[in-house]
Amino acid sequence: MQTEKGRTLTRPLNVLVPLIRAKIRDGDAAAAEASMPYYVAAGEMLLEAKASGEVKKGKFGFWATSTFKRGKTTLAGWMRLAKLQKSSRARTFKTISEAIRPNYSEGRSNVTINRRLVDEIKRAHPEAAARVERREKEREQLELEVALELISIGYRALAAKLHPDRNSGGSHDAMRTLNMIRDTLKRFANSEWGR
Length: 195
Known about the structure:
Elements: E1 2-4, E2 7-9, H1 13-52, H2 60-68, H3 72-86, H4 96-100, H5 115-124, H6 126-162, H7 172-192
Antiparallel strand pairs: 1-2
């Protein structure tokens, strides 16, 4: 605001709106950068809690979201960030969004969504948000069912070849290894979809 001979002069909205948006963006970026060490530490402790084995297998996601009142994606992002910071290829990230942004050079194709925009849309259209959330849960359930079915199909096909009673050269060791791999894949599929 400027004054001219006792009169207050204001800038027009077409000038003020972009300036205000820029300040809000700068504030959000500064807050995100300042919070990073805390989220990394929280992610490390979440990994430790998961490794403790005190939460029933397959129930960690539910336990964490209900205990800390944060979304599954947020908590998983913090844990992923903590793992990235400890890895041999660790690099410094300024924000969580930057850490979990797609890294196409590593073959990842995760899509990072602007969470503030999503929250704003959810508040404006709660019925639509509920439908989308239901569809997302249905999609996740379907993905889990498909993954488990593929594991079963592959297991049955290989078991037919590797079973010790088959004349195709199967053995007890081969079946033990196959069973271990099947169980590992099922655990991974269940943990990936939060069951």
